[in-house]
Amino acid sequence: MHIIVVGCGRVGSELATRLSVEGHSVVIIDKNASAFRRLGEKFSGRAINGLGFDRQHLEMADIGSAGALAAVTSGDNSNILTARIAREVYGVPKVVARIYDPRRAEIYRRLGIQTVATVTWTTDQAMRRIFDSASQPDWTDPNGNVVLVEKTVPQHLLGKRLGRLDEISGVKPVLLTRGTSTRLFQADIVAQEGDIMHFMVERNAMVSLDSALGGKENRP
Prior knowledge:
By secondary structure, the chain is α/β, with parallel strands linked by helices.
């Protein structure tokens, strides 16, 4: 996948390097050229000195072929503007924005922009929102038999009740996060854009969960 990372701070440099190591085509943009010193030797992508919301710089980064963009600078306004341009002008399928102000987060989730409304943003959080096709564990029990996974509710379940996800063998929905609030899972919850769920899953049921959320098999 071709991925653009805007912001070469701690998170941006780690994210770009990790994506590069995993074999993705990566371009990172930062207004401060000296920030690229954070990129390790393992980074094999391109670095562009510029602004993430500047269309000329985005086109230099081949945004037309991008499958995902992560705006992870230290400024909410820059990240929001970059994310909206990527989503609304260029139609990038997966857009992630780092937003510190929780009041803005839910608004942008409704526009199809995944956000984390917290100062504590990690590379793993960004990765989970870019790649939601396979479950990535947040926690594993000491024996490795049960894991806690975070998943973004997919498009094909929006507007539908999520109760049937509780019928998958070896899978237990436990939490739903909507905007800045988190609640215990209830079977009558109707999915909305940007909803994030946490599941307790037996290892041998991971494929069933991914299939149900991917709409391939066991589709609710």
